[in-house]
Every structure is written in C-alpha cells, then in structure tokens.
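Fill in residues.
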C-alpha cells in the first residue's frame, strides 16, 4: 500500500512538472508569434520603403540629362509603349 502511494506521488510530481513545462512552452510560443508578426510587419514596411526608393530612383534617372545609350533606348521603348496604349484608348473612346 505504501509503495502504491509513493508511486502515485511520484507520478503526480512528474505531472506537475510536465504542466509547468507546457505553460512555459505556451508562453514562449505566444512570444514567438508576436515576434513573427512584428517581423512580418517590419518586412512589409521595408518593402514599401524600397518601392518608394525605386520610384524615386526612376524619377531621378528620368530627370537626369546624361543617359547611357542602353538607358535611352529602354526609355524610348517604354514611352512608345505608353503612347501606343494611349492611342488604343483614344480609338476606343472615338468608336
């Protein structure tokens, strides 16, 4: 009878230890989730900032007087593409 109560007490102690470990792991998991969410928000903000900087760079390049021949050709192609799209829109409006 004494042996059984000793075994039960040992099992209860192990169970209490497991419950404490589970609580610690749950707290750690919540903290990791918060950190992940914060990092994801930071990533989105940085991506947004990067897009803004890329647009600024393109604006500066467009305003720059000295272009390489390949940049000039690329810009001419882009402008030609825009003009074609505008012409299509005008034709649709006139139809």
């Amino acid at each position: 009878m004494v042996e059984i109560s000793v075994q039960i007490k040992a099992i209860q102690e192990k169970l209490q230890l497991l419950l404490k470990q589970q609580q610690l792991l749950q707290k750690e998991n919540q903290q990791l989730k918060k950190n992940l969410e914060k990092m994801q928000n930071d990533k989105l903000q940085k991506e947004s900032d990067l897009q803004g900087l890329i647009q600024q760079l393109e604006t500066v390049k467009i305003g720059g007087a000295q272009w390489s021949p390949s940049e000039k050709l690329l810009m001419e192609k882009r402008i030609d593409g825009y003009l074609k799209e505008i012409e299509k829109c005008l034709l649709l409006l006139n139809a």
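Residues 67-95 form one domain.
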